[in-house]
Structures are given as C-alpha cells and as structure tokens.
Amino acid sequence: MGALRIVIQIIFIILCIALTVLVLMQEGKSAGLGAISGAAETYWGKNKGRSMEGKLVKFTTCLAVGFMLLTIILNLGVF
Hints:
67% helix
C-alpha cells in the first residue's frame, strides 16, 4: 500500500502544478467588461464556451474536481 500512496502523491503534485498553470493562463474577470457596452453580442461573446478560454475554464474545473477528490483520498488515510 505504501507504493500506491507514493504514486497518488506524485499524481497529486502534478495535478497541483497543472491547476496553478491553468489558473494563471486564464483571463481576468475584468476582461469581460465588454458586456456592459454590448460587446457580448459578438461572435466571441456568443461562442465563448467553444473558444480557447471556454476550454480552459472547463479543463480547470475538471482538474479542480480531481484535486478535491485526491485531497479527500489522501487525507482519509486509506492508503
């Protein structure tokens, strides 16, 4: 069981680094202030989920869920 715990900890560290990089790659919320002036009606405003920014948000969410699950698993002391 000790080897499995080490593998899970290595995956956890890689996940932490990837999550940090993805959060830093995303645009700030202030970049979305174009919605006030009506810029949200452009192609990029309507299809934000399909853009690179939308994919980053979805991937960050998946990594955050994985981070929380691994945190719970490592703290339960099962391994």
